[in-house]
Automatic annotation (TrEMBL), chain A:
Protein's name according to its UniProt entry: Tripartite tricarboxylate transporter permease
Keywords on record: Membrane, Transmembrane, Transmembrane helix
Membrane among keywords: yes
Listed transmembrane segments: 7-29, 49-70, 106-129, 141-159, 256-279, 313-335, 355-375, 408-424, 431-449, 469-488
DUF112 domain sequence ranges: 18-436
Automatic annotation (TrEMBL), chain B:
Residues that span the membrane, as ranges: 38-58, 78-95, 101-134
Residue ranges of every copy of the DUF1468 domain listed in the record: 7-147
Organism from which the protein derives: Belnapia mucosa
Alphabetical list of InterPro entries matching this protein: DUF1468
Name of the protein: Tripartite tricarboxylate transporter TctB family protein
Length: 503, 155
């Protein structure tokens, strides 16, 4: 109880409050601009967090990412261009509703069910984290190796792309993480004699390059999105209560799937939205209405992607294994602020954890009024000329990368990863898998090599402990899943959607 | 930059082979069976396998083709515009120290905006205002030591 009061005091501090409101507005605006994803919004926030207090730093990341995931629905609904990849699953549906003259209902559903999903996800985080923390205390390097490997495998189950290309992206990320001397033996590897590479590739410049610079590059060769016509919106939340009652089951299913996918290390909001939309269509009483402007899938997937956002923090806080690319950034910030992830975080820094829950709930509550405001201002915000925004983003990439290490070499890295990200994305290699490979590489290797040394080069102990056996089964299952889908499709079964892969 | 699966697959095979080969030449830790060589070799072999599979088009059926977005009727130089952002970052690396942050940033924003098709009436004000705001935020608030160069900021 004392911890809870302490947490309230921490969150109510003026700097935290200002951080929440400012990052909420920032997240809403960036998320709504097509091409600027929630991950990018978060990555560009990192240099700002250096200067904030630990709680305020975490608050900015939580708030900005939650807002950006919701506000990605706005251009999706009005222009049929998803603002963030997490909205792509139901963009067509939302746009169909707009064409039927139900833009308010579609946007309102996005907002209302995003907020509900976020709160349910937070509650699951509150309930699950302490329970899992007990278990995590008994984990050894074997379990950590499997967990990290499972995270990497889940990251390769990306919707709408070849699983082999995804695995190749992930391996490429692992290879990048080998650079430098951050390995168990401390041997410099792949440094090509450059002292700048001795310390390894920092995840932040890589992230900024892959997600932001490559987006600026894409803008160079794509036509500008159409301008949004000025329009008056009716009441945004009218009818949402009716939808909540009517689609109660889909909503809960969406929340549940979102939570499960979020907890899985490596799988995040985009995955949750795709799976939930597919589930909704499969279990609906009126599947023929899907794609014609039917709110059911919107309800389920909108709740799902925000639920996964909160529960994605579970593996991040407990094991330091990111649930998605956003929490991959958050983990870096947690380390920087002395809140090192691990099971002891919940016993030793309980008040900070309560504060984190409170920020999540607060962010999802203020999302409703601020979101309504954002919807009403959307036509103004979306009118901002792309030719004016993109160069500034590029400048922020350069300065942000420079700020993380105060050296110009990271700016060069940002450019290199921009090119790599652009080429990979263009050819169907999912970049999120690359990023998670880079982020988790050191951890996977550390636990893999330590385990091998402990077992004297024997593979059997990797499967002997009960928890590690379960995790190993899940990992191998994730590896073989695409093969199963492929065989199922070949043997004349009904065509399964490839995006069902993470179920 | 749309390359065929054969090309990207082959690149991966070569890269994986190189990684495994140079990994195998890393010095071992005395008295240990597994050392710094194990992980790069494993990744290298994995990449070789993936590269071969991709080159033979396995797993292609999972992909959803992206709509071709390059507008027709442009010269072949149009595609080279994607190199502008990395080139501007390179320019930042080279020019930030001698020129200073403010002029470098102004040039980056101006060139970027013009290449994206902004008219001067939009590009010039942004190129003048944005660097100042970024400098204020990062230099004053976040205490990032941005280089002063030939045009030190008055604050």
């Amino acid at each position: 109880m004392n911890d809870l009061l302490e947490a309230v005091r921490l969150v109510a501090a003026p700097d935290v409050m200002i951080a929440i409101v400012a990052s909420a507005i920032y997240g809403l605006v960036v998320g709504s601009l097509p091409g600027l994803s929630a991950t990018m919004a978060t990555a560009l926030l990192v240099p700002v967090t250096f200067w904030l207090s630990p709680i305020a730093a975490i608050a900015t990341i939580i708030t900005a990412s939650a807002m950006a995931i919701f506000s990605g629905d706005i251009p999706g609904c009005l222009l049929r261009i998803p603002g963030t990849p997490a909205s792509a699953a139901y963009t067509d549906e939302a746009y169909a509703m707009t064409r039927k003259g139900q833009a308010e209902t579609a946007l309102g559903a996005g907002l209302w069910f995003s907020a509900i999903g976020g709160i349910v996800g937070t509650l699951s985080l509150v309930l699950m984290a302490p329970l899992l923390a007990e278990m995590a205390l008994s984990f050894s390097t074997f379990e950590y190796f499997w967990l990290a490997f499972l995270g990497l495998m889940c990251a390769t189950l990306v919707a709408r792309s070849s699983p082999i290309k995804a695995i190749a992206s992930m391996l490429l990320g692992l290879l990048v993480s080998c650079i430098g001397m951050e390995n168990p033996a401390g041997t410099p590897r792949f440094t090509f004699g450059l002292t700048d590479l001795l310390g390894g590739i920092e995840p932040i410049p890589a992230l900024v390059g892959v997600f932001a610079v490559s987006e600026v590059m894409r803008a160079m060769v794509t036509p500008e999105p159409p301008k949004l016509p000025d329009r008056k919106f009716g009441s945004i939340l009218a009818g949402q209560w009716k939808l909540t009652k009517k689609y109660q089951w889909p909503m809960w299913r969406g929340n549940f799937i979102g939570v499960i996918i979020g907890v899985l290390p490596g799988a995040g909001a985009d995955m949750a939205a795709w799976v939930s939309y597919a589930m909704s269509k499969k279990f609906s009483k009126e599947p023929e209405k899907f794609g014609t402007g039917h709110p059911e899938g919107l309800v389920e997937a909108g709740a799902s992607n925000n639920a996964s956002l909160a529960s994605g923090w579970v593996p991040s806080l407990l094991f330091g294994i990111p649930g998605d690319t956003i929490t991959a950034i958050a983990i870096g910030v947690l380390y920087m602020k002395g809140l090192n992830p691990g099971p002891t975080l919940f016993t030793e820094r309980a008040s900070s954890m309560y504060a984190l829950y409170l920020i999540f709930i607060l962010a999802n509550i203020i999302m409703i009024p601020l979101g309504i405001l954002m919807i009403r201002l959307a036509s103004q915000v979306l009118r901002a000329p792309r030719a004016g925004i993109m160069p500034v983003i590029l400048l922020l990439c350069a300065v942000g990368a420079y700020a993380t290490g105060n050296n110009l070499f990271s700016v060069l890295m940002v450019g290199a990863f921009g090119i790599l990200g652009f080429v990979m994305d263009r050819n169907g290699y999912p970049v999120a898998a690359l990023v998670l490979g880079i982020v988790m590489g050191t951890m996977v290797e550390q636990n893999f090599i330590t385990s091998l040394i402990k077992s004297d080069g024997d593979v059997l102990p990797f499967f002997e402990r009960p928890v590690s056996a379960v995790l190993a089964t899940m990992t191998i299952g994730a590896l073989l899943w695409p093969l199963g889908v492929w065989i199922w499709n070949r043997t004349g079964g009904r065509r399964l959607p490839a995006q069902g892969a993470a179920e | 930059m749309l390359l065929s699966d054969r090309v990207t697959g082959t690149v991966l095979v070569v890269l994986g082979g190189l990684a495994a080969w140079s990994g195998s030449r890393l010095p071992a830790v005395p008295g240990q069976d597994v050392g710094p060589a194990a992980f790069p070799m494993l990744i290298g072999f994995g990449l070789v396998i993936c590269g071969v599979l991709i080159a033979f088009g396995i797993g292609h059926s999972f992909e959803v083709p992206e709509e071709e977005e390059a507008p027709a009727g442009r010269s072949s130089f149009y595609g080279l515009r994607i190199l502008v952002p990395p080139a501007l970052l390179l320019f930042y690396v080279l020019a930030a120290e001698p020129l200073g942050f403010l002029p470098t940033a102004a040039i980056i924003v101006l060139v970027g905006a013009l290449v994206l098709g902004a008219r001067l009436i939009l590009a010039l004000p942004i190129a003048l205002i944005a660097p100042v705001l970024v400098h204020l935020a990062f230099y004053k608030l976040l205490r990032v030591p941005l280089p002063a160069g030939i045009l030190p900021a008055p604050w």
